[in-house]
Amino acid sequence: MKMNRRPHFLYAAATLLATACRHDLSSSIPAALAFSSPSLRPPRHSKSPLTKSSFAYEFSSSIRSKQHASSSSSSLQLQMDPSSLTAPITQLFQFTGPIPFLPSLALNTVLFFSLRPKLMTMLTPEGFAHSLALGTMLWTTLGWRGWTVCVVYLFLGQAVTKVGFEEKTKLGIAEGRGGRRGPENVWGSAFTAVLCAAAAAQGGGKEDLFLGLTSNIWLLGYVASLATKLADTFASEIGKAYGKTTFLITSLKPVPRGTEGAISLEGTLASIVGGSLLSLYAYAVVGLIPTLEGVGVATFAAFVATMIESLIGATLQEKEGLAWMSNEVVNFFNTLIGAAIAIAMGVFLLGM
Question: Does the pTM exceed 0.90?
Fold first, then answer.
């Protein structure tokens, strides 16, 4: 067997040397490799010796067939529809949801880890992971518009938390962990929003119904829930930082700043600002709310829900036998009430 295989390698080596002398080494390598392949080897028991002319003919035929295959492949690539390459990106950034889950997850992963240094000043490691899950859910159900509403809420809420933070820390009324949010904060604030987003996506078109309500109504509830939480954050943080006189909402008796259920003029005005800011963004920037009347409804719902949240805090929170009534649970009820008020007003007052 070794004696039979040796001539093929000798022919290949000879071809490599001869071609290199005439042309360049880059063209000689394919020639040698092509000759050493079984398709160009002479039959093992062939009576006809391999001549220079027969080899040249077979080799040139092989090269021509490979060039033809290469040109055919290139023409097929040129005939590909360019839209097939941009379609996934277009779908990912389409104006309305739902968006495929895996592309949404991939994009959120890239965005979150790109912004990780900044986000880790706002979130705990667990909060970061849960926020990534939340962002993926919102992008999947509502697309980029609904996603950015939640992002604006997060950044505005974090910014107002830092107002007068040193003074609040000295008084012992500042947010724990340096104001960073954990998983309990993420879901306490945004679980109602996720429910409304999922319901809006189930409706399909803006006039389609889910549980008897249009997608526009569910979107109004989505914005109102986040506007409610932002209004509550503005009221709490501005009231603790600048509130001159704070009253318990149930008795209107003066109480120290930071007391559960306490309200102040400064905090109350700040809550209106916070609720309106997010509602205006949803209307003017991303068009999630279709009318200015919707902005008024979301802002009003956020304000009323914030007052109710203070009432819940004063009557139920930190009471014996109600240890489960934590800030996060109260936040969930707060956002649920805000969304419910907005949905009711949208149906009965705006006819949405």
Answer: no
* Whole-number pLDDT of residue 324: 87
Q: Which of 159, 310, 264, 282 is nearest to 225 (CA)?
A: 282
Q: Mean pLDDT by 10-residue block, N- to C-terminus, for the chain (352 residues)?
A: 46 44 42 44 48 50 54 48 61 72 94 94 95 96 95 95 88 84 94 96 73 93 98 95 90 90 94 97 96 97 96 85 87 97 96 84
Residue 332 CB neighbours (<10 A) = 19
Q: Which contiguous run of DSSP H or E holds residue 210?
A: strand 209-210
User: Which residues, in sequence order, are CB contacts of 161 under 8 Å at separation 6+?
Assistant: 175, 179, 233, 237
Q: Fill in the DSSP letter of residue 60.
A: H
- Angle of helix 25-36 relative to helix 2-22, nearest 10 degrees, comes to 160
Determine the 3-state secondary structure of 9 from DSSP: helix
Task: Give the whole-angstrom CA distance, residue 231 versus residue 330.
Answer: 14
Q: What b/e string do you get for 174-190 counting C-beta neighbours within 10 Å, with b at 16 or more?
A: bbeeebbbbbbbbbbbb
Alpha helices in the chain, H assignment, sequence order = 2-22, 25-36, 52-78, 83-92, 101-114, 116-119, 125-161, 165-171, 183-203, 215-242, 265-280, 292-315, 327-348
DSSP assignment string, 147-164:
HHHHHHHHHHHHHHHTTT
